Amino acid sequence: MPLFRSKEREAEQVQVDFDRLPRHIAIIMDGNGRWAQKRGLPRTAGHAAGAENFRTIATYCKDIGLEYLTVYAFSTENWKRPAEEVKAIMGLLKKYLLEAIGRMERDRVKMEFFGDLSPLPQELQDLCRRTREISKGYDGCQVNICLNYGGRDELLRAARAYAQDCVEGRADPNHLTAEHFAGYLFSRGVPDPDLVIRPSGELRLSNFLLWQSAYAEFYFTDVLWPDFSKEELHRAIAAYQSRSRRFGGI
Ligand code: FPP
Predict the structure, then answer these.
(1) Average pLDDT rounded to a whole number, residues 75-81
(2) Catalytic residue among 19, 78, 174, 227
(3) What is the pTM of this model?
């Protein structure tokens, strides 16, 4: 495929080589609240705009042939937010999953969820299970939604499950490898993200994919998530493609 040049920002010559896409992009969808605040709207309107943008970006990722997209939708710490905001986010997720189920057959997107779903509203848990079940054999882009997810929580759960396997004789700590341990994570079977994107100007990981991001390339931008367009994604991918990944070698 030829190099792509963004029409909107021609001067910047954003060029993406679609033959060398990262396999896996992970996104911290941050800045919804500030986006709403700037417009004098309630924070929940920012989340609605963020959910809409997720649809756009996820569809685009599928269309360009990305293999894996992982998004941080609700963290283990997000329960500290006002009940009304939590409820609104759960409602947006429900709406999205109902729509996704409606067009799954056509989209062939495989949906997965990283995180402990048990504290979520029962209806949402059921929808997550249904979308996972329906799409498990699909071969399109795999979209992983992190829900009630935290990197530390994930590592603690994995350590507990591994310790249990050791106690019960199914595992031997002398033979533990990184590959084996990764099999206890929510992300088992999914390659590590190549590119982690965080919009909204914050320069931190916020408990996102702590294990999996060990060798990821990072892309930070001041753009708020609801404004993170396809052109912004091109910029992130172009930045990724300009870097030299050595994985500790030379
Ligand atoms: C962070 O922005 C965003 C969240 C905690 C929620 C993300 C949720 C969605 C985009 C909607 C549902 C998702 C899907 C997949 C349909 P923030 O609220 O912390 O923004 P701020 O830092 O500007 O306050």
Answers:
(1) 97
(2) 78
(3) 0.94
150-187 residue pLDDT tens: 999 999 999 999 999 999 999 999 999 999 999 999 99
The residue whose CA has the least distance to atom 8 of ligand 1 is 73
Among candidates 225, 235, 242, which has minimal Cα distance to 54?
A: 225
Which of 228, 19, 14 is closest to 5 using CA atoms? 14
Closest residue by Cα to residue 134 from 105, 106, 98, 99: 105
Active site residue 78: yes
Q: How far is the CA of 72 from the centre of ligand 1 (A)?
A: 8
**Which amino acids bring their CB within 6 angstroms of ligand 1?**
29-34, 47, 50-51, 54, 71, 73, 78, 89, 92-93, 96, 145, 200
At residue 12, the pLDDT reads 58
Q: What is the 3-state secondary structure (H, E, C) of 218-244?
A: EEECCCCHHHCCHHHHHHHHHHHHCCC
Q: What is the pLDDT of residue 52?
A: 98
For residue 33, the CA-to-ligand 1 centroid distance in Å is 7
Residue 7 CA to ligand 1 center (angstroms) comes to 29
Structure tokens at 163: 């310790």
Please state, in angstroms and rounded to a whole number, the distance separating the CA atoms of residues 11 and 213. 32
